[in-house]
Amino acid sequence: MNEIGEDQIIHHVLSTVKTIALVGASPKPERPSYGVMGFLLGRGYEVIPVNPGLAGKTIHDRTVYGSLADIGRPLDMIDIFRASDFVGGVVDEALALEPLPKVIWMQLGIINDAAAAKARAQGMTVIMDRCPAIEIPRLLGH
């Protein structure tokens, strides 16, 4: 896909999703997931942190869930801050949700073609190796 087509897809995703599960959320301000979560919250998205080791605690005043299934309500997008090797498991977890999330987003440096193909085969939009905190100002201007 050329960059113009990909930009249109990313613009559409960022303009339409409302509820984002952020997998691999960290309470440490120096971690990229912490900064991106704060950025997304500041742009009006509802962000739900997911980290099994922190379940029940809070990050940015939001309760942390241990898994996607624990959230118990529809999610528009799954934003993955886990190493590429772990993405397959996250996608499998997302594919077990009802209704299915619309988008799987893998952060900068995270690429898993097999997991992406599995998600796309179920009708999900997949974005890899991108960061919404970079794409929102670039494509939406805020």
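^ that was protein a. below is b, sequence first then the tokens
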Amino acid sequence: MIIRQLKIGFMENFTYVVGCEKTKHAMVIDPGRDVDRILAEAEKEGLNITLIVNTHGHGDHTAGNAALKKRTGAKVVIHAEDAKGAPEADVLLNEEKTLKLGDLTFEVIHTPGHTPGGICLHAEGNLFTGDTLFVGDSGRTDLAGGHRPTLGGSIRKLTAVGDDTVVWPGHDYGPTPTSTLHWEKRNNVNAVEYGFYEEGA
């Protein structure tokens, strides 16, 4: 799997260009407004963008949807509960399923709490968490549609995918740009409150 993490926008957003090494098909997760930079990164890796996936419907995660769709013909995917945030969407998810990208299969995990339609993507030991889980923290729940206990339940669900799983968050808000679920269980400031804390080094 090819993963390129791009920091785009004034809110320290991460956009991801994720590709299949064999087929060179790629998805862009949460495209920021700087579509030229996203396309340049894909071209550098020889990737053909076929999917655009939004982890939720907030504007800082959907800002590049329309321009990127126009320039690539890629289909835009978002959960139906957050559809208002992506009027250009082609695929509205109503249940947890899988997304195919070349030879890669991504598990779609519904993770409401930050927004009703929040999702995370899991494949080959990598977890793209949007604003559900940050490095050392979690998404805010004081915006419309947010609910703190629900977010806690969503994060507990995520921790079941394996301690060695790499966390790729939606913002660069932590001490490092990525972490692991092992690290989050021991260091995340919400681990005790949300019930996923584990003692140990």
